[in-house]
Amino acid sequence: MKHSQSKSVFDYYGKPSFGKALPLSFQHILAMIMGAVTPPLIVAGVAGANAQETMLLVQIALLFSGISTLLQLYPVGRLGAGMPTIFGVGFAYVPSLIAIGSVYGIPGILGAQIAGGVAMIVVGIFIKQIRHLFPPVVAGTVVLVIGLSLYDIAIKYMAGNGNVAADGFGSGQNWLVGLTTLAVVLCCSQFARGYLRLAAIIVGILVGYAMAFFFGMVDFSRLHEAPWVMVPTPFALGIEFHASAVISMVVICIVNSVQTIGDLSATAVGGMNRELKDKELSGGLLGNGVCTLVGAFFGGLPTASFSQNVGIVAMTKVISRYVLSIAAAFLILAGLLPKFGAAMTTIPYPVLGGATIIVFGMITMTGIQLLVKDELSSRNITIVALSVALAMGLNAVPEAIAALPDTARMLIGSPVIVAASMAFILNMALPRKSLQDEAREREQIEREMNGDEAPATPYQNRQIKAEAGN
Predict the structure, then answer these.
(1) What does each C-alpha distance from 172 to 153, 200, 379 come to in angstroms?
(2) What's the pLDDT at 58?
(3) pTM
C-alpha cells in the first residue's frame, strides 16, 4: 500500500528533512542508550566476564536494539508492529539475568533466552485469541507501574549515578546539573514554539552536558578504550541449556510480553490518539520474540519495548517512523563502531536523569489514560489498587523476599512482573460488575437494611442512572 509523501513529523509515514529529524532522533537515542548499555554491564559483572566479553555484550546489545527497532518500524511479513516505538535490551529482565548468570554464567543465560524467544513468538501467534484477557484495566496497570518504577532510576541519575554508595552521590553539583537540565526541558516543552518545543529533551541534554563538561564531570575513558570496529560472530560466548534457567526465562518472557502490550497500547493512545490494532500487537510481539531468539546466538540479551521512549512519543506526538529509523540506524552504527557507541555513554548521569524524569512522568499519565478507558467500577479500582500496592511495596522493600528461593525471587523481583501477574489474575478471578450493577447492589442492600422490599422510587431510579453515568 502506497502512502502520500508527507514531511510532517506528526505523520507515521512522514519524512521530514534529515536536519529536522536528526535532533528528534537523538532524543530517543539519549533517552535509552544507558538503559541498553547498563544491563549487559551488570550481567557481565555478575557472570564474571572478562573485558573483551563485556565489550562484546555491550556492542551486541546496541546492535540488536537497532535491528529490533527497525523491524518494528518496517515490518517484514508478520514480524513488526509498524508503530513508532523503540525496542532494545531492557531492565525488565535484569533480576532474572543476574540470578541465572550468577549460577550458569553467560552461556546459561543465552541458552535460556532461546527458549524465552520461542515463548514470546507463541504469545504473538495467539495474541488475537487471548487479547481479551488483557483489557485496559490490565494493560493500564502495567504501564502505570512501569512509570512509577522508573522514578527512582531518574532520581539516582540526577543525584550522581545508579549507585548510592558512589563518591559524590547526592552532591550539590550533581543536583545543579540535573535540575538545570530538567528546567531547560520543562521551559522548552511548555514555553517554546515550533521546532524548539519538539526538541526540548535534546536541548536540555546539550545545556546539561555543557555545564557538566565545565564542572569536569565528563569521562572520556571509555571512548579511548573502545576499538574502532566490531564484527559480530555467532556462538562467541557459548550457549548452554539448564532446566531451571529455561523455566525461569520462559515465565519471565511471557509475563514481560504484557509490558510490551502496555507499551504498544500506550504508544497508540498517547502518540496516535487511537486504540492498538490486533495486527500491530501480534507483529510487535512476534518481532520482539524473533530478535530475542536470534540475538541469543550472537550474545545479545533479551529485547523489550523501551517505556521512556513511549513517554517521548506521548510528550512530543512525533510519530514519524523516519525519525525513529534514524535513531535505529545510529544504534546499529554504535554496535558496529564501538568508538561511536562509547561517545554516547560519556553523557553524565545527572544530565540523563534531569532529561528523563519528566518522560517517566508521562508514562505514568499514559497508564492513567488507559485505565480511564474502562469503567472505574469498584472491581476495576480494586484490581489497580492491589496490583500497584503489591508491586511498588515489594519494590520498596526488596529484603521482604530475600529469604525466598532463587526462582521465586526471579519471578517477583520486578514490579512490572508483579503488577502484570496480579492484574491478570484479579481480572480473571473477580466477578465482572459494571457501575450500573454496583448501583443496583447498593440499592438492594439499602432496601434490605431498611426492611423495605418495595420497588425503587422514580427518584432512586434517577439516582442509579446518574451514578452509572458517572
Answers:
(1) 18, 24, 46
(2) 85
(3) 0.73
